[in-house]
Amino acid sequence: MQNQAKTYVKYTNRRVNQMKQGLRLGTSRKALAETLSREWGVEPNAVYQKIHKVAGDLKAFKARKKLERANRDKVATGNFVKKASTINLVKKTDGIELSGDALKVYNKLKKEPTKIILHDDHVRYYFN
């Protein structure tokens, strides 16, 4: 057996879209690879591998979209009660002091700060 040099195949967006279209039509991967390889003049094995990869990406994309739609419907039908937020800003010469609901820094700090001051280049959290 001779060692054959492997050729690099460039898949343009047009070629990838042809693969996606064939997969969406329900054509088998092997038949699709053979027809596209004849059309492009490339080895069928290389095209089949790329089709396999594109099919996996399509499947993952569909699953992600399905999950987003399910979550969107769940959020749309939920009963939410709006809370009145109270954020007070006190301007000082050395920064802006935040109070009220602004003191609730969710999931970032281990405990809630008593005072937050915003400066031009940094933020300071005060704990008592």
Instruction: Give the ordered list of helices and strands.
Output: HHHEEEE
Total helices: the number is 3
Shape: elongated
Largest sheet: 4 strands, antiparallel
Q: Let me know the number of strands.
A: 4
The whole-number mean of residue pLDDT values reads 80
Strand content: 15-25%
Structural class: alpha+beta
Gap between N and C termini:
79 Å
Descriptive report:
This protein has a four-stranded antiparallel beta sheet with strand order 1-2-3-4, with no helix packed on it. It starts with 12 loop residues before the first helix and ends with a strand. The mean pLDDT is 80. The protein is α+β, with helices and mostly antiparallel strands and 128 residues long. The protein is elongated and about 75 Å long. The chain has three helices and four strands. The protein has two domains: 13-77, no CATH class; 87-126, no CATH class. A hairpin with a 2-residue loop joins strand 1 and strand 2 (95-100).
What does the secondary structure layout of this molecule look like, with pairings?
Elements: H1 13-25, H2 29-40, H3 44-77, E1 87-92, E2 95-100, E3 115-118, E4 123-126
Antiparallel strand pairs: 1-2, 2-3, 3-4
Helix pairs in contact: 1-2, 1-3, 2-3
